[in-house]
Amino acid sequence: MLLDERIWSLFKCHWRQTLTYWSVFFSFGLCIAFLGPTILDLRCQTQSTLQQITWVFVSQQFFLLVGSSMGGLFKKTLKSSLLALFSCTLVISLVFAIIPLCHHVILLSIAMGLAGKAMGVIDTVANLQLVKLYQKDSAMFLQALHFFIGLGALVSPLVADPFLADDNCVLGTNLTTNTSSPSDLQHLRSSLAGHGAALHNISHYHLYTEGVVVTRVSYAFWIMALINLPVPAGVLVLMYHERLLPCSKSSPRLLDADSSTNPSGDTDQGHGSVFVCCNAAKLRDRPATFFIIHALGGAILFITDGIIGSYAGFVYTYAVSPPLLMGHKMAGCLDSVFWAAITAGRLASMYFSYRYRAPRLLTISLVGVILVQCLLLIFYNSSVFLFIGTCVLGLSISSVFPSMLAFTEDILDYKGCATTVLVTSASTGEMLLQLLVGSVIHSQGSYSFLLCCAIASFIGFCLFLLLLYIQYIHRDHHTDLSQSINIKEMAKTGEP
Q1: pLDDT digits (tens, 9 = 90+) for 273-302
Q2: CA distance 457 to 53
Q3: What letter would DSSP give residue 135?
Q4: Which of 7, 137, 249, 423 has the fewest CB atoms within 10 Å distance of its CB?
Q5: What is the DSSP letter of 267?
């Protein structure tokens, strides 16, 4: 009961900030999931080819990585963090609103680049601020934070679905549809949902680029813009409550105007952008284990988020290929099952992260990922087990990112660049590992998709075991250093 009361009292002290950070991650999820289902309608709107429209995915992913690496620049004060979140969530609503006005693929790529950069900043800043608020109690709140990504990712396709074209949305000059059937279009939509990485398998489909455009997808984007508008409004309300706006009644409150400062007076806590983290002055006199922990934590999330991106991107391609040859509609459900399982897993992990320490949760999750991948390799010709394995994989891998973030920051006593490094590494892994798996599938066949994910999960678990070992060395070094400092201080004061 003491721990329950303590955590509840912490939440009551910071509930406004906590709910705000959760809501901006809903905005993040809303933005990250809409592109796959709507990509064919956007192709029609821009009258571009399939090859051209995939640059939209590249633009979003690249600038998401840029935003993640730069997000730490906005964390020095609560005002700068909230101002960044307000700007980014407002940009996302504006991008939703102007996407229907982008009738050229270059304009659409620029808009998605802006959205991607905003998403990257949100990802870093919200994680950083929650870790600062709760520190050793942050695991449960980080699980909830990442649950809201899944919630937004589930809402976005549901909003878009009623407005998607059931038939070809560019009619030829004679106002007749082209040769592609609705079944072919469903296959294209599901294949492109994985960030366009499976384009080589579908590029033989002929789609008109000139003619009459008939699509209602604009309404979906305007609805999502309205759904997202309360998020920047909520950030603005929090800034007003914290007296960080010029129109506030008085100056910032003395005690919590800048809640990013810690009791020791270290306002920076070592956090910043990736470039600030590489500052030689900040890295001087750090033990080797300090750098190894950052590298291992980033590598683990590079792999696990890469697995998430690769599985979501290619499970449909695997399901419709031999030996399964699953129907397009049934195979199209796999991606939804996977993301639903991830969302449910993060919801359940809110409780488990309160009951159990992060290393135990990470061990169970990573072992679960390996077991599922091995079983998928064994029962590779079973459609039923593919659905079961997809669900269990989503549940197992769902809590890895927030648990690893809380665990790494705890090891480094919240004085490293762990959050920025881990968020940037995860974004990089999701982009690069997906491209690597896609090229392997293209050259070696669909079965290599499962093999690549299994090998990556083994590597990730081995790196985690190495991280546990380095953790003990780092803490022993930290203990010895503290004892040495205490002895020197005692010697100066003449105490026995």
Answers
A1: 555 665 555 666 778 888 899 999 999 999
A2: 31
A3: G
A4: 249
A5: S
If one counts every other C-beta atom within 10 angstroms of the C-beta of residue 460, the result is: 23
121, two tokens: 């900043």
Q: How many CB atoms lie under 10 A from the CB of residue 184?
A: 17
d(CA 393, CA 376): 10
What is the rounded distance in angstroms from the CA atom of residue 305 to the CA atom of residue 68? Answer: 14
Exposed / middle / buried, residue 334 (Cβ in 10 Å: 0-12, 13-18, 19+)? buried
C-alpha distances (whole Å) from 222 to each of 94, 96, 156, 215 are: 9, 6, 12, 14
CA-closest candidate to residue 16, choices 224, 253, 178: 253
Lowest-pLDDT choice from 106-110, 213-217, 344-348: 213-217
Tens-place pLDDT, residues 112-168: 999 999 999 999 999 999 988 888 888 889 999 999 988 888 888 888 888 887 666
Please check whether residue 128 is in contact with residue 134, taking contact to mean a CB–CB distance below 8 angstroms. Answer: no
Q: Average per-residue pLDDT in the chain?
A: 82
- Single-letter amino acid, residue 41: D
Would you mind telling me the total number of residues written for the chain in this entry? 496
For residue 327, the SS3 value is coil
> Taking 80 as the threshold, does the pLDDT of residue 394 lie above it?
yes
DSSP per-residue letters across 153-220: HHHHHHHHGGGS-SS-SEE-TTS---S--HHHHHHHHHHHTTTTTTGGGTTT----SSSEE---HHHH
Alpha-helix residue ranges (DSSP H) falling in 34-170 = 35-46, 50-70, 78-98, 105-134, 138-160
Q: Do 377 and 402 meet the contact criterion of CB atoms below 8 Å apart?
A: no
Task: Tell me the mean pLDDT in the region 191-200.
Answer: 57
Minimal CA–CA distance to 452: which of 432, 429, 433? 433
pLDDT of residue 174: 52
Is 490 exposed, middle or buried (CB count within 10 Å of its CB: 0-12, 13-18, 19+)? exposed
